[in-house]
Amino acid sequence: MVSSEDVPSGAERRGIAEHVQDGPGPFSIYPWLLVGLGAVSEVAHGRARPVWASAPLLALFVASVIAAIWYGFRRGRGDRLAVAMLIALTVDAFVLAAWFGHGMHTLFPLVAMACGVVVPWTRRPWPMIVMAPLSVAAALTAWLRGASAGDAFSVWYGTLISGFVIATILALFSAVTELRMTREELARTAVSEERLRFARDLHDLLGHTLSVMVIKAQAVRKLIPRDGGLAVEQAADIETIGRDALRQVRLAVSGYRGQGLAAEIDGARMALRDAGIELLVRQEGTPLPEETGSLLGWAVREGVTNVIRHSEAGNCEISVRAGEDTAVLAIRDDGRGGPPVKGNGLRGLTERVGGAGGRLEAGPAEPGGYLLTVTVPLATLPVGKDAS
To answer: Quick one: 137 and 203 in the same domain?
Structure first.
């Protein structure tokens, strides 16, 4: 019924099983098995003769359909054991319908439901490949056993629609799960890329400078016994190079933490777009001083990172309002309520805002989502000073 190349790998099946709690499970399908009560009634009232044959076959069908749906959910669509159960219950249903007549035709929609759970629909157009011939075979079997044209049509339509409904629902939940996993992966990738960029910047910045300082230090050590004046000059060069390196490191760290408000908002727009989140930006008031813009840019970076990583939001709004004495940045999303704990990023942001004489507030918003608010005076402290 399915080829080996269409069966998900073990890792893929485990991924589906890990996220099964986010969507329907086997117990959401089992109540629909009541559709087959007509077949049970046929056996219970002795109309499916001989009962010694119909009862065990029906019991085998019930056990097989329950097992197929259970393994299809718990072990992933395309699991070999689930497929084996599906094949067994399909054969059993056709045997019951062909042998015992029209009362057993209510089993075919259950076969289609099991197909919707077990068959890996996302790989090929399996709904058309499996459901179409299955429904036609079910209707033909009913017609050959004496069903009217209207009843045969009902069997065909019921079988076809049952499988498609289950397959469509599960496909939608799988797409939602995949989108969420992709969003999480995008957030992790963005963080990793930023760390790599920062590591490369520091390497390029300090590699040559430190090498020169080591060479000059060696020269000082050799010159001290022979030429103290030249040794002093070399030591002065080391001090100058060191001060310049310290200034460049501070600039690099400042650029890493905040490139300015406008640049960070542009970066946030691209990151949120890649994560599937709509961004609305509102800016009011006078232009911000450079130091204030740099600090609020860092807040934008941290706030947007948390939106991407934790919120599962669909929309995000960044508003900046500059008054006479203070500037207020607000980042609001419509997600599930923000990060579960206050991590290092928010703690570092709180310290930096506090050091600039401002305050940070973060928490669930009304009527839903998460709100991060940063209020800072327009005359903030400089990002860094040269060493004295």
So the answer is: no
